[in-house]
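Hey,

Quick one before I head out. I ran the complex with magnesium ion overnight. Inputs first:
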Amino acid sequence: MIDAAELGRVFRVRRQVVHAVRDLSFHVAPGEFVACLGPNGAGKSTTIKMLTGILAPTSGRIRVDGLDPARRRTALARRIGVVFGQRTTLWWDLPLRDSLELNRLLYKVDRKVFRDRLDELCVLLDLGAFLTTPVRQLSLGQRMRGDIAAALLHDPAVLVLDEPTIGLDVVSKAEVRDFLRRRNAEHGTTVLLTTHDLGDVERLCRRVLLIDHGSLAFDGTLDDLRALVPGRTSIEEVVTDLYLSSRGSPRTPPLPPVPGGTSGTA
Amino acid sequence: MIRTYALLVWAWTRAAAQYRVSFALMAAGAFVIGGLDIAVIWVIFANTDSLAGFGPAEVMFLYGTSELAFATSDMLFGNVDRISQHIKAGTLDVMLVRPVATWAQVAADRFGPHRIGRVVMAAAVLGVALARLDIPLGRAWMVPVMVVSGIVIFTSMFTLGGALQFLLTDAPEVANAFTYGGAMLNQYPLSVYDPRIVQGLTYVLPLAFVNWRPGLYVLDRPDPLGLPSWTGLLSPAAALALAAVAALAWRAGIRRYRSTGS
Ligand SMILES: Nc1ncnc2c1ncn2[C@@H]1O[C@H](COP(=O)(O)OP(=O)(O)O)[C@@H](O)[C@H]1O
Ligand SMILES: [Mg+2]
């Protein structure tokens, strides 16, 4: 479904060359659920932008559903859904329903099919209460659910999400996660998301891509990731260790447990 | 592309229609501002009978044709040269992942129906001028050709201005030197681009084709430069050539687009 081979992207910023992504190769099969982890500036968003055709790679090769994204961007747009956690794909001043209807027209989705899909998404994402509210008045959690609905109305085979849970409260996060997991299980939609929230990864994905300094630091299952750094139990510790070691910092010894423990005292 | 444009313009018009009073006020404002230029012409002709050999009706004709072309183009497509705002806000990323033409999305974004006020004023001026000039049918057919060519030319200039912003945002120091003399180099990593500069240029440069040469033909005046009068008929060809250049530049711009690091 997604095929990247020696993918690279450089930016020239005032005579300096920034290697945002370098030599990145991975393959995602149809129906997989993959999380892309990495510290700030690792190159996750740049990778997403190359996957969706927003940016052309400066080296290597990428195929999504058989298409070269930068060259066939509009054709690919019909087959993928894209969600940016940091910005909305909805029209700020229009009510959510109008935004979705406009998307229906732009994606040329049949009216009847659209109604059925919207009904389903309304139930699963609980959109009913704010369908007539202008997007700018929605809370972040509501807006994110609206954005996810908009990305799925044309029933894409692949859903790409850049930090979909950023800034969400615990309840909204859980709603988004539950929905994505169901969508992947029931519709077989291939999902690739980036996140800083390790809770997302533990609840959602079997497979993790760890990106650091633009290259792939790890590709495998969560259990393999844990096994990589023996002696660490939580996924947080494992990832922190990997980040630190990739920066050349020495591995910090495990912290002693907090006296009195952390449970039941709050 | 036309369908996309129409759908988005309709959505924005409906959004604007929720504020009827403000729409009416803004349209009236645009109408009055368009009228100020006419007042200037009026004042000039209160003191003299002819301007460089042209009478009041002829000046109104020349003004009316170019102003109608500019006002229409600005109302319909003027937003394409505001693309640097979309680049900075990241909304261009969003437009690029939709399965429709980016140009149409940018042109239709925040479509302001109130700008019709200025179009109406320009049309009125042209109407009055034509009524007073009594141009024979054999040359009058050139008037709509002039206006349509003008719309194409101005729209191409807006598009070129937009395409240029992809390059300028690529080279922040150039862009800033251009706009602010480099004073704000570090404050604005991406170019903050003043659309008025390009609007000034877009108004002056193509005027010769939009207005002056074919205008002389319609008015049956000899060219002071001595060019034969049929050169006045070249404006549609010039418009198409410019549109082709603008389309290529736009495509090159999109390919060079580098988004923003967030
Ligand atoms: N448009 C751009 N221009 C210049 N540098 C960029 C641009 N986009 C990203 N970068 C740089 O590339 C690197 C990777 O950025 P990004 O992909 O946004 O990281 P992430 O999403 O993993 O936090 C960063 O060093 C960033 O500064
Ligand atoms: Mg990012």
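Chain A touches chain B at residues 11, 14, 20, 41, 45-46, 49, 52-56, 70, 73-75, 77-78, 80, 82, 84, 86-89, 91, 93-94, 98, 102, 105-107 (CB under 8 Å).

Talk tomorrow,
K.
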